[in-house]
Design goal:
single chain; 128 residues; alpha/beta; Glutaredoxin; globular
């Protein structure tokens, strides 16, 4: 019975997969345990490109699969949240990709369509 429940839970979670956004400190703790990559998204309210990323790109099934395999997400509002030192931005969105030592592996300024964002995730993984 436990196996059936586990299988149903896994299927349900894959159908409704999404990026789970953690607090920065929690993400750092998680990557130290599982050697994933932190992706910090710096955004702001009323940012059309940020909304596009959240509503279109981060809803793409292939992007979600790739992201959830190797990345942990942190979403910070540049006007309302503390931005850790070194995570600079020119505009929003800005994505910083960090290793478990909080060293930047890469950066993406601006948005991207699902295919280009997937390519960026794959590129970042090669630097990890």
């Amino acid at each position: 019975m436990k196996k059936i429940f586990l299988i149903i839970s896994l299927l349900a979670s894959s159908l409704f997969a999404e990026i789970v956004w953690l607090k920065y400190d929690d993400a750092v703790e998680q990557v130290k345990k599982n050697n994933k990559i932190i992706m910090v998204m710096l955004s702001r309210e009323d940012c059309p490109t940020c909304e596009y990323m959240e509503d279109i790109v981060f809803e793409d099934k292939k992007v979600l699969e790739e992201f959830n395999k190797d990345f942990i997400g942190v979403h910070l509002d540049i006007h309302n949240d503390f931005i850790p030192e070194g995570l600079t931005y020119i505009g929003t969105p800005t994505f910083h990709f960090l290793n478990k030592f909080e060293r930047r592996l890469d950066r993406l300024d601006g948005g991207a369509n699902a295919k280009d964002f997937m390519d960026k995730l794959k590129e970042v993984k090669t630097k990890h």
